[in-house]
Structure formats: structure tokens, C-alpha cells
Amino acid sequence: MSSNAAREQAWNEDRLARPLERAAWKAWTYDRPAIVLGCSQRRLLEAAGPDADVEILVRRSGGGAVLVGPWMVGVSVALPPDHSMVSAGPVASYRWLGECLAGVLRTLGVPARALPPEDARQHRATLDAASGARPGPDWACFAGIVPWEAVARARKLTGLAQVRRRSGVLLVGGLLLEPPDWPLLCAALGKPAEDAAALARLTTSCAREGAADLAPARVADAVGAAIADALHAAQAR
Amino acid sequence: MTDIVLAAQAWKDVDPGTEALVDAWLVQEGARVSAGQPLVRVVVVKTNHEVPAPADGVLEKILVQAEETFGPGRALGVLREDG
Fold first, then answer.
1. What pTM, to 2 d.p., does this model score?
2. CB of A185 within 8 A of CB of A67?
3. Which residues of B touch A62 (CB under 8 A)?
């Protein structure tokens, strides 16, 4: 039986395969761990260690490797190419989804904030200064930050990525309910153990921020509802 | 000859100095292409874009190979237009 991670990628592919006429979205929970690489990371498949008994997939969007699992809720939003939510350019297109996810996190009691471009730039500069000569695990999605991804107490909580085609625009994202199994991610891709420690320092999670009642299905429902509200509001404008 | 470039809108609000990455060319040099046909996939700010052919013609030359990076306005390739 295919994993939820594989079903997510199949759903994404299917939405981009033909012209989109209306918005479609789905929130995802993950029954078991899987690694989802960015579109430019196929070489990491070759580097996967012999003990990589975790499923490894490649997505269409850019960005770094993501370890999905019971610790995460994911989201896919597919929009027609001329939809108002994606017509202002790729970076601006992240804003509404980033703020949706941050809003859901705040309802859980997490002090999350989606970072505008200038704040994301400052956040990156701070991380670069702190890492010094040692490069961070920039192959991992949660090691870096782009505009409108959310942080709590300067640690990353959400990830975003995007695909833009003539047929439509696909926005994807994920938020951390619990700390992921960073050692599993690093071991599976042949990365050093110190990268796992770095990822733990750079990120946080709802549980770590004191949120309770983090049943993935409940949070996924909240994410879906927030997206529906945002799209409805956009349509009404 | 016409340059094949990533549209300016893809670079909107992107930090100065940020480079994009060529993910994959979808056609080979010498291939005949149609206006609007996707020629190459590139990634910038975690966004995967398809760059279309600006006109009917032949992909004369690839200037930026897969896994190479480029900045705004850089020609990724050259199209020899029909006519």
C-alpha cells in the first residue's frame, strides 16, 4: 500500500498535469517516515546509505530535503495560473499560505510568525554569522529560510516551496508538530551526524513550544479550514 | 537569434545576489520548438519555473547547463527563430 507521502506527490503531479480551472487543496498527515527531496537533489538518491530503509521521493518543487512523518502536517494548494493569490510573483505568493500556517500555529498556542522578506534576510544573516566557517546543512529544507516561512523564537517551524507551470501554480508546505527524527534523515542520505544536531538547533516544533492536543488529523483539519477561509476571502474581494 | 531568459516576474522580491539553478533542460540543442513550449526548468527561492520558447524556431545553443546557476537577465540559451 502506497504511503501518504507517495499519495501526496501523486496528487501534486495530477493537479499540474492539466490546466487548473479552480483552486484545490489538501492537508496531509503521514503514516510513516519518508524523505522528500527537492527537484534538484536527485544526486542525493545516489548518496543514500545502504541502511536507508526509509522511502525516498523526489518532488517537483525546489528546496531541500524534508523528512515527513507523524511529526508533521503537510499541505498542497493548486491554483489556476491567473488566480489572485499567485499573480503578484513567486515570493509574494508564499505570503498568504505562510501566514495561514502561522495563524494555525498561533491557535495552538505557538508564538509563530511568518517572516516578511526583510526579516527572512536578517534571519539568514544571523544564522550565517553564528555558523561561522562551518556551513550548515543547506541540503535540508529546515536548515534555511525563505520569505513567509514561520519561526518561533528564531527557530524554523514551517517550510514552503512552489511549482509554477502554464497549467497552474502549486504551493506546498509543512509544519512541525514534534521534532523530526533528524538522525534518521542524515543517516539515510549519508550526511554527518553533526548535521542532525544542527537541524535540531535551527528548528522547533509545536510540542517544543508547549502546544498540547497535537493530533495530526486535528491540526490537518485546522490547516484545511484556514486555507479554505483564505481562498474564500480572496474570491470575495 | 533570440535569448531564452527567465521572466523578470520570477525575480520579483528576490534578494539581490540570489542566483537561480538550472534544474533540467527539456529539449536538446538542435531541437525544433514551438512558441510557448517549455524548454528548461529552473529553481529560484524554492520555486520551480518552466521557461518557454519565446517563438517558433530551433534551440541553437544552451548557454547555462543543468546544475549551473545564473542571475537575473542571463540568457539560458539561444533560439534561432523561424522566418
1. 0.94
2. yes
3. 21, 23, 43-48
